[in-house]
Automatic annotation (TrEMBL):
CDD domains: AAT_like. This is Aminotransferase. Its EC number is 2.6.1.-. NCBIfam families: PRK07309.1. Its cofactor is pyridoxal 5'-phosphate. Residues 31-382 form the Aminotransferase class I/classII large domain. The keyword Cell division does not apply. It comes from Streptococcus troglodytae. GO terms for biological process: amino acid metabolic process. Keywords: Aminotransferase, Pyridoxal phosphate, Transferase.
């Protein structure tokens, strides 16, 4: 019996991530150096691990409520109030999720219907569009290349007016994956002035909020648009907890009451012992990102210096831990082939820009969430490759 034609037809719009495709294509290269994934090379802080152990030893192995432990929601609410001047009631405006990925899936499936449209500044993280497509909605990209990957109020309003009533939501992500771009308070205020005129959701993925390098604290758009914003956060990047899978949704009561419906039927509740670890992270570990930030800045600056000397064009990233570099025209603009050749020749892997959509073609992304030793060796091999490539 062949059931292959009976799947959700929207799956036909979804392909395996090109990041994974590329990774697979170079995975058989012996001892390849990978600067590919957004995976901090730091260990989860010891005090957080100890909190999880204590929870396990205390037999904290049963379901929590669907929204998560109240103590965790209280800690999360206090954290964003102190850090970002946001006020959320932990009783009914905070949801604990299994990573920011589930937070995004729960949010998008809750608000979108077939035929809806979603605006997305591009190039963009490739995890948004598949979820939008799965529910029969459509992503409309806003090309930000002409403005060094910064979304302007003019770009935003033009796109909103063009899409009309079909437009249901805007997805923002900053600091941004893959470009590392982030926004100042004035820039966020200006975008909010546009968005508040229209009855659309703002899904703001701010999972890299603790990794900003401008000297100015991260500014959440939820500060200016609390009634429209579904704020997505998590501990993967700030506390080096990617494998723990702990995310958060912050939204006003009227929105959270709907979001919890999709969340509960996706996962029931987040892992209990991890929630106890998260309480520790958001209280005693609320500044755990600071030493990591110092190292990331050193790595970022080293890569920029080396790659600009090789004629790569780089917009200096002010957040996250990625370099998004324009491949020199002389080397061709097929990012997949360029990096496949580089990986095979020099056993170093970066991510092709095309993995982040059509507006990422001609670029490459480097994750500097890797040791300085690895980064230095990768830059040495890239220099050798570029010299050879030019001959």
């Amino acid at each position: 019996m062949d059931l292959s034609k009976r799947f959700n037809k929207n799956l036909d719009k979804i392909e395996v991530s090109m990041i994974r495709q590329f990774d697979q294509s170079i995975s058989d290269i012996p001892d390849v150096l990978k600067l590919t994934l957004g995976e901090p090379d730091f260990a989860t802080p010891k005090h957080i691990k100890e909190a999880a152990k204590r929870a396990i030893d205390a037999d904290e192995s049963h379901y929590t409520g669907m929204a998560g432990l109240l103590a965790l929601r209280q800690a999360a609410s206090a954290f964003v109030k102190e850090k970002y001047h946001l006020t959320y009631n932990p009783d009914n405006e905070v949801l604990v999720t299994i990573g920011a990925t589930e937070a995004l899936s729960a949010s998008l499936t809750a608000i979108l219907e077939p035929g809806d449209k979603v605006l997305l500044p591009a190039p963009a993280y490739p995890g948004y569009e598949p979820v939008v497509n799965l529910v029969g909605a459509e992503v409309v990209e806003i090309d930000t290349r002409s403005n060094d990957f910064v979304l302007t109020p003019e770009m935003l309003e033009e796109a909103i007016l063009k899409e009309g009533e079909a437009l249901k939501a805007v997805i923002l992500n900053y600091p941004t994956n893959p470009t590392g771009v982030t926004y100042s308070r004035q820039q966020i205020k200006n975008l909010a002035e546009v968005l508040k005129k229209y009855p659309i959701f703002v899904i703001s993925d701010e999972v890299y909020a603790e990794l900003t390098y401008t000297g100015e604290s991260h500014v959440s758009i939820a500060e200016y648009l609390p009634d429209q914003t579904i704020l997505i956060s998590g501990l993967s990047k700030s506390h080096a907890m990617t494998g723990w899978r702990l995310g958060l949704i912050f939204a006003p009561t009227v929105l959270t009451a709907q979001l919890i419906k999709s969340h509960q039927y996706l996962v029931t509740a987040a892992t209990t012992s991890v929630q106890f670890a998260a309480i520790e992270a958001l209280t005693n570990g609320k500044d755990d990102a600071l030493p990591m930030k110092g190292e990331y800045i050193k790595r970022r600056d080293y890569i920029i210096e080396k790659m600009e000397a090789m004629k790569f064009k780089i917009i200096k990233p002010d957040g996250a831990f990625y370099i998004f570099a324009k491949i020199p025209v002389a080397q061709g603009q097929d990012s997949f082939k360029f990096l496949q050749d580089f990986a095979k020749e020099k056993a170093v892997a970066f991510i092709p820009g095309v993995a982040f959509g059509k507006y990422g073609e001609g670029y490459l992304r480097i994750s500097y969430a890797a040791s300085m030793e690895t980064i230095k060796e990768a830059m040495k091999r890239l220099k050798e490759f570029m010299e050879q490539y030019a001959d």
